[in-house]
Design a protein that fits this description.
Blueprint: H1 3-8, H2 16-29, H3 31-38, E1 48-52, H4 58-66, E2 71-76, H5 79-88, H6 90-94, E3 98-102, E4 115-121, H7 131-138, E5 139-149, H8 159-164, H9 173-183, E6 187-193, E7 198-204
Parallel strand pairs: 1-2, 1-4, 2-3, 4-5
Antiparallel strand pairs: 5-7, 6-7
Helix pairs in contact: 3-4
The protein binds S-adenosylmethionine (SAM).
Length: 207
Amino acid sequence: MGLLKKYFNNTRKPEGWLGKLMVNGMNGGHAALSDWGMSFLKVSQHVKIADLGCGGGRNAASLLKHYPHASLTALDYSDVSVEKTRQVNQAAIAAGRCIVLQGNVAALPFDAEEFDLITAFETVYFWPDGSFNEVFRTLKPGGTFLIVNEADGENAADEKWVAMIDGMTIYNADQLTDMLTNAGFAKVTVHRNEKKHWLCLTAIKEA
Ligand SMILES: C[S@@+](CC[C@H](N)C(=O)[O-])C[C@H]1O[C@@H](n2cnc3c(N)ncnc32)[C@H](O)[C@@H]1O
């Protein structure tokens, strides 16, 4: 396997020294996309937040800043991501506002109806079947699931990523809407940046 392919495979699960490089890169490289996605969160106060597939932890830090009264649980199945997220959010962890767990979104280590907001930035491409059911189960009634993707499934140029990164599936808005509806979400709203082919979905669990 070439070094470039090895490096980009770390977007699916950061591992080793290439994974450490990748989580640093993602924290900077995904910031504008993540901020764009967060701008669609309309509720002004979320009390309990989970950021799934947290990568380098920059988005967890941003959510904690944006919602100063919230606590946040970040989760990722990569030990490199968990370590970096703990490092980036060490002050919030010390203040008791943030915990970082190693785990798989396919079997979330949470009780039913724990969270007001669950976020997924640049990660649902890799999630196993059934993961959206887990998000639905662990959201409170009235809670929001936010998905933010750099690839909207409408850009032929993005096929290079599918070829480069093992286990990646790029979904379009209709496919994600169907997956969310099948998991139980009643209200799904699609937001797009058509020029950049960015895609964001907000899904509400009916109260
Ligand atoms: C492309 S990175 C995005 C990281 C971060 N959310 C961001 O926007 O910069 C994808 C992350 O999702 C994590 N991930 C992928 N599949 C996962 C799963 N099934 N369970 C937990 N984490 C997962 C990877 O380990 C990786 O850290």
